Amino acid sequence: MTDSIRTSPLHPVHEAAGASFTDFGGWSMPLKYGSELAEHKAVRSAAGLFDLSHMGEVRVRGAEAPQMLDHALSSTMSILKPGRAKYGLCLTDAGTILDDLIVYRMDDGEAGTTPEFLVVPNAGNAGAVYTALAQRASGFDAEVVDESADTALVAVQGPKAETILATAMPQSAQALAELKYYAHLAVVIPTEAGDVPATVARTGYTGEDGFELFLGAESTEQAGDRGSAVWQAMLQAAEAAGIELTLCGLAARDSLRLEAGMPLYGNELDTAHQPHASGVSFAVPAKKQADFVGRSALTSKDEASQVIVGLRGQGRRAARHGYAVSTAEGAVIGEVTSGAPSPTLGHPIALARVDREYAAEGTELTVDLRGKAEPFTVVPLPFYRRER
Predict the structure, then answer these.
(1) pTM tops 0.85
(2) Quick one: how far is CA 41 from the chain centroid?
(3) N or C, which end of the chain is more exposed by having fewer CB within 10 Å?
(4) Which residue stretches of the chain have pLDDT < 70?
(5) Which residues contact 122 (CB under 8 A, 6 or more apart)?
């Protein structure tokens, strides 16, 4: 590990599994272990095992932690009930997006207990989000602690994820079955190295059912030990249940989230654009009573000159990030933010930021694919929706 590139606490596990690595958000993380197409299809049909330890974990606690987060983030976090989670945005003073994140309410809500939250930002933005939260906590009775270095994060995603986790921790099988989407609970995971305490959340970034396992520790070394033990326990549980659990890297995670129409920081989200131009208007509630950083600079949804749309390719060639989007007459009206062939749907798909007058479903557009205008059609999002 160099000063500029960090490695996951599970890095030796990935090396032993023959992973190909890539630099993502300042971390050397598995890109794939074999075929990224096979990894993608495994998550859609059975289950995939991901290391997400590059994500940040920032603990916010204190009597005024709920009010502080209402001030710091776009969503109203003070109404979040214990055991639940909520998506939100950390905005700049200009109303643009510093990061998108998930906030978990960790305390039990009993009288006399101190409110506590776990904020999970993206890997490359974890430091910036921690700094912003620490600054925005000024004047509030709230403490902000960066726990990223001492936390491993393992995810099991796919239609058979619940069966795998229930097999790994049968004592929690009923609680897992009852766990709602964007909810979490404390569990103990039996492993060959001993019991590992964890927070299991029913969240994810693939468009499938799935769980993320937060493994807190007292040091990076202990996080690695616990992460490796839980990683192996998930594989053993899948084998015992007769399920093939496929190791998955960032390539599959990206194609899965694109099919699910989920934004990626650095593509759809950045500090150059406000939420209404980035496909995340839902994260800025119009009726929020508390003032929050960036609110005064926000334009209204109707004032956004550009919006994010879904595009379906009519041919076989895929659009890529940064490619120009034009009208049929050749006028440039936007650009692709994410694009790839869809392994599940069998045709090219893309997200694009375009002038709002061209955002209606069915609008015929073109994308400049290295000098050739290829036809694309505006379609509803998400591209893929799992059967429930």
Answers:
(1) yes
(2) 19
(3) C
(4) 1-3
(5) 25, 55, 56, 99, 100, 101, 265
**Alpha helices (H) along the chain:** 11-16, 36-45, 65-72, 126-136, 161-168, 173-178, 220-240, 250-259
pLDDT digits (tens, 9 = 90+) for 207-240: 999 999 999 999 999 999 999 999 999 999 999 9
Q: How far apart are CA 102 and CA 169, in angstroms?
A: 25
Question: Does one domain contain both 69 and 187?
Answer: no
Is 251 within the bounds of a domain?
A: yes
Pairing type for strands 306-313 and 196-201 reads unpaired
User: pLDDT tens digits, residue range 288-334?
Assistant: 999 999 999 999 888 999 999 999 999 999 999 999 999 999 999 99
Write out the binding residues for substrate.
Answer: 212
Name the region of 108 (left: φ>0; alpha: ψ -120 to 50; beta: rest). Answer: alpha
Other CB atoms within 10 A of residue 354 CB? 24
Give the C-alpha separation, 183 to 67, whole Å. Answer: 21
Considering the domain boundaries, does residue 296 fall inside one? no
Place of tokens 């520790």: 217
Q: Are residue 163 and residue 52 in the same domain, yes or no?
A: yes
Domain of 42, in residue numbers: 6-56+150-255
Provide the 3-class DSSP secondary structure of residue 206: coil
Q: Do 133 and 21 have their domain in common?
A: no
DSSP state of 234: H
Annotated binding site: 212
Q: Which of 255, 290, 323 is where one domain is finished?
A: 255
